[in-house]
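The following block was generated as part of the benchmark described in Methods. Ligand: 1,3-dihydroxyacetonephosphate.
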Amino acid sequence: MLAVRPTEQVAADPGLPERIDRLRRERNAVILAHNYQLPEIQDVADFVGDSLGLSQEAARTDADVIVFCGVHFMAETAAILSPNRTVLLPDLAAGCSLADTINADQLRAWKAQHPGAVVVSYVNTSAEVKAESDYCCTSSNAIAVVNSIPADREILFCPDMFLGAHVERMTGRPMHIWMGECHVHAGIDPAHLDAARRRHPDAELLIHPECGCTTSTLYRSSSGDLPGATTVVTSTEGMVRRAVDSPASTFIVATEVGILHRMEKLAPTKRFLPATPGAICPFMKMITLPKVAAALETLSPRVTVAPGIAARARRAIDRMLAVPV
Ligand code: 13P
Ligand code: SF4
């Protein structure tokens, strides 16, 4: 299912995990990995989690070096939160199609059309976009962040339209929503879920709010159109937690397929089925063990954020971290 199976990289160079471990100690480094990373990367990481958990971990680490196994905006967030540490992204080309849907000029133009509006930007944005925002949010806390904003304030929410629609629905708060999408999640549509449900009618549905199927599935679930199926819409870490805690034994998982490795590791007796086996983020899969080892050896490629941008972006991130979830 995945482009590269764990054994392939390790089989090609069986000493790699050990070499990474030695370098990690020599460099006093911590390896942070997102839930979509390749299995072998998750297995060497010190911490695996969602965007919120990874930012919190980056903020609290006392390591000198952070090797960020994820995509560029995540490494930038780590660099903003830990300005005195060396933040490495093993492949600088690991971007994000969703983050690319809005830039700072576009956001400034949008703000000019809505003077006084509060800007809430999803963490999947560049540091420059965060610097133009009042609040950052992740899929774990977007609802709480929007609920924390006084009811009379106009809100601009960017850049994910499916997450925005979900937050609007859950908070009852109308917002102006940027029409961006992640090409991986937009491709997970209601037809995929329906087909998976027909094959496994008792399975619980775990859905990431970036998915194109989120709103219609929740609507159908609340109107009784999906009998027997529990539907949970949450962040990648919320999905992993639910997989462990739920009484269900079979799950249809609507997000990037890298998360199945973590679920299978933490709940080995349960069955996890991807809603769309082709939901593979090519950017997340750019991080490989040889690139992690090379990054630790050369202390590059490094991700830095200009101090002026970082200070303004940090305000938006700190406001988010201060909202109780
Ligand atoms: P999470 O914060 O839920 O891990 O999502 C990040 C992401 O990029 C989803 O595509
Ligand atoms: Fe970006 Fe989508 Fe990949 Fe997440 S899955 S990092 S939103 S391109």
